[in-house]
Amino acid sequence: MYASNLYAPTLREVPAEAEIPSHQLMLRAGFIRKAAGGVYTYLPLAWRTLRKIEQIIREEMDAAGGQEIAMPIMQPSELWKESGRWEVFGDEMFKVNDRHGREFCLGPTHEEIITDLVRNEIRSYKQLPVLLYQIQNKYRDEIRPRFGLMRGREFIMKDLYSFDKDESGLDISYQKMYDAYTNIFNRCGLVFRPVEADGGAIGGSNTHEFTALAQTGESEIAVCTKCDYAANNEKAELALIEAPAETELALEKVATPDTKTIEAVIEYLNLPIEKSIKAVAFEDEHDRLICAFVRGDHEVNEVKLQNAVEAVSLRMADENVITAAGGVAGFMSPIGLDRKKAVVVVDQSVMAMKNACCGANEADKHYINANPQRDFGEAIVKDIRLIAAGDPCPHCGAPVEITRGIEIGQVFKLGTKYSNAMHAGFLDENGREKPFVMGCYGIGVSRTMSAAIEQLHDENGIIWPKAIAPYEVAIVPINAKDEAQMELAETIYQALKNAHVDVLLDDRKERAGVKFKDADLIGYPVRITIGPKAINEDNIETKVRKTGEIFNFTKENYLVKVQ
Ligand code: ATP
Ligand code: MG
Ligand code: MG
Ligand code: MG
């Protein structure tokens, strides 16, 4: 590519609307332009990087047994009504009507479409497992689209769905995806941690978020300083969920199946940590868990259970949070309210902390290393505080650090949530009808590009990891009007191209300073300078963007090296 042909309009000023480095730099370096809030055009440089990220993803998905498909972005409401998510998904869903008034949505995710696909095709356990994926635009009407590609309303996602005949099959598919994600983010050159995330059972093995470490990230994570324990603290965006206007809930009403939402329950109980509350469960006078309200990632579920013991032993993935609630009911003294009792469950990291630490409201003291049941008996527990810096790691006891990160991917054991709701099953070895045991696995492709920039940049611009750089090498002749320089530049350019290096020749008749600035801003990993020294002394200066190291090569070095 010749820079004189490249459509990469760079800006000298930092655009006012951009708050974080990746957003600022992608605008300044000519990667993206805004069409509407959270909706962007990807210019050639961004598109090249995105295609490289996608290619890495494809290779790893295929290696793990995935098959690529393309599902429709427009999805009929009927399927979402079948799964029960048409109403609960809420305002984040873009809905459209066709000319006959039929309702559709623009796919925020594809569980419904794929469950419908597979239920019509797969009949026997012999055809399982099936792993299907796509890389495609997703649509979510985020409350606060921001930070450029980081939180878009239209964004690129890779989503894979696994269908297995049983839980142990799902465990294998899950582990394959977990490993594939580890490979993908390593290959992209990111610093990341897989963290136990919300929605999981006690122990948190049912969902992990892959989090790129970055101070500008929206997720707060607790990371052990010694072992590999890492867990997501409550995410800031959940705090944005507004409590509904209706707050007059009598407890009797709360505990009935037609009860409203967890927000209403939280408001009714006047709980102080509404941001973090994942579930509220109620027990009857015999300590039986009779009702629980759960906040999932996108939805509010309300589930009735017969008793806590049963809840604890439930292993179905869609009831994981209930399991967690049940678990808490099993060990923690609940809030005494008339005859009924409430148990409040906060996020996964706190669940993991259950034996080590718990806060009680008595005189606002916090108790470290307390066992709630043993130490508090029937005391009123109103608050469980979030894990904090310096707290003991729930796995190994070493101090925990609180840091920030960007959720770039998530792997999730769905279990039979969708296959049950949508009657999607197969015949097992004994000819019995069984629901598919499913998993879903997402990667934010466009967000991954942002995350890479958040992690690697300096005051001069982006520093691309080689694997996802739009071009790996930029050749910069200092004076494009100098024939000898241009000729040498062209020779090296062709040699590198022949060696399949992604190379750009900055043939623009700009001052050298301008071209150097642009090369740093765009962030090519390697810059080759062709100036008088290269011509007169056969000394070709080669600079590594990341470290600033300079290597000197001869023309022969280049031509031989790349042959
Ligand atoms: P978040 O918590 O940031 O809202 P999510 O948990 O809702 O993300 P998932 O449903 O898990 O997202 O989607 C899979 C992946 O898609 C996420 O891990 C993230 O990398 C990416 N993603 C989700 N929402 C957006 C968005 N609005 N813009 C860009 N990427 C996104
Ligand atoms: Mg979200
Ligand atoms: Mg999330
Ligand atoms: Mg997620």
UniProtKB/TrEMBL annotation:
Q: Which SUPFAM superfamilies match?
A: Class II aaRS ABD-related, Class II aaRS and biotin synthetases, YbaK/ProRS associated domain
Keyword Membrane tagged: no
**Predominant place of localization:** cytoplasm
Domain Aminoacyl-transfer RNA synthetases class-II family profile, chain residue ranges per copy: 38-465
Enzyme Commission number: 6.1.1.15
Swiss-Prot/TrEMBL catalytic activity: tRNA(Pro) + L-proline + ATP = L-prolyl-tRNA(Pro) + AMP + diphosphate
Q: What is this protein called?
A: Proline--tRNA ligase
Instruction: Please state what class of enzyme this protein is.
Output: ligase
Compartments annotated for it: namely: Cytoplasm
Q: Which GO terms describe its biological process?
A: prolyl-tRNA aminoacylation
- Which comment does the entry carry about domains? Consists of three domains: the N-terminal catalytic domain, the editing domain and the C-terminal anticodon-binding domain.
Name of the gene this protein is made from: proS
What PROSITE patterns does its record include? AA_TRNA_LIGASE_II
